[in-house]
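Model it.
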Amino acid sequence: MPPILQEWGKNYGEIFRTRAGTTDFIWLNSKEAVKELFDRRSAIYSSRQPMPMAFDCATGGKRITFAPYGKHWRDSRAIFHKVLTKRMADDYSVIQIFEAKQLSIDLLNNPKDFYMHNRRYAASVIMQVTYGWRIPKWNCQEIRRIFEVLSRFVQCRKPGQWIVDVFPTLARNPIFNFFSNWKRIGNEFHALDDATWMQFWDDMKQKVADGTAPHCFGKILQVSYEKQGLSESQAAWICGGLIEAGSETTSATLNNCLYLMLSNPDSVKSAQEELDRVVGQDRTPTFEDEPNLPFVRGLIKETLRMRPINKFGNNHCTIEDDWYNGYFIPKGTVVMANWWYIHYDPTYYPDPEKFLPRRWFDYPHSAAKAAALPDGDQRDHLTYGGGRRICAGIHLAEKSLFINVARILWGFNICLAKDEEGGDIELDFSTQSLQKGSSSVTKPFPCDIKPRSQCHENIMREEWQSAKEQGIDFSHIKWSV
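Modeled.
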């Protein structure tokens, strides 16, 4: 799909319309159009289209990502914001540093499984925030269940996967429902996902009852969800929504970053030279180093530009009629930020097909600050979305990406893997390298990851040993809902 979206953007200009079933899609192909509609007119452009399968049936109307704009979405979103503010993300640094130290050890001990090590890192961070317990290894039941939920999530959101989501009125057609199996599959998905999120919730409920609950967001929500007007099931799905949002997106971006580094070995070398100059070789990078590491920051921004988190753009749905630049946009239209065109528009990014972290050297803003700039054309990229539906976890995600990319480049050499004859295993760096489905997740790929020196390895091992002995203390974090 991405090459088609790029071609459409080139051929049809700033805005064009397509139609799928009974739903109109308006595609926005400029940063300013996205800023105007998603941000300045967010009161109109913040809903979701009807999804009888993906939302109503497969999630029982409880997955906030698919929820239409309204009280349920606003109340749930407000809780998300309280957990994921910049101040809270700063408080979570102790968790991220601890898990990043284990990631370094995992890469030392078993570098071939880097793909799953990154998944473990992301899932463990968000599980500690949500339920207060770690995931110390990737081949465990918890990881399996989380990513099974995410697999069903991807199946639900894939455009065109479910004809009832293309023609929502079919959900009320008894003849169609008699011959179709969408409700059966949706109910199965809901039962499986609900069982996972309720098990995590019930485990915390038991710990709260016997006084052994760890300090975490889930504990606070356990004792206050009724005051928020939530059912127990809705509260469990809010916690599940945090886990969904924090698991695959962060790990996919880390793996995408490693993949794109292999397309430009000079970028790895330049980042390591920067790290040696700023950090030195007798300690690992910290969050305090970030302002002085523009190349590392550029690697992350360039990854998010070239590999936005899904293949179809960021979509919002209108709740009333509107006009934009002479175009009529009816109520109920799905409006897409076509980031696969915008992110490859040479007007914004010269040589857009090349992975060039240096293009960001003079760019001073974090992704969150960039999203708030009044001039839409000055935004770095659109991967975190926009308007009222901008990614609530943007601060947490940015911190996780920085600390891990910085530590990996500080401690390891990243190279193409070798074949049996000692030659490089060449990779396809086009969008054909992405897995099937709606998410921009790179297919598992070979990669040669080795410590830069014995000194670097010793420091990482000593650091991890000390971290294990001290444990993680996040008693200072003050959650509220």
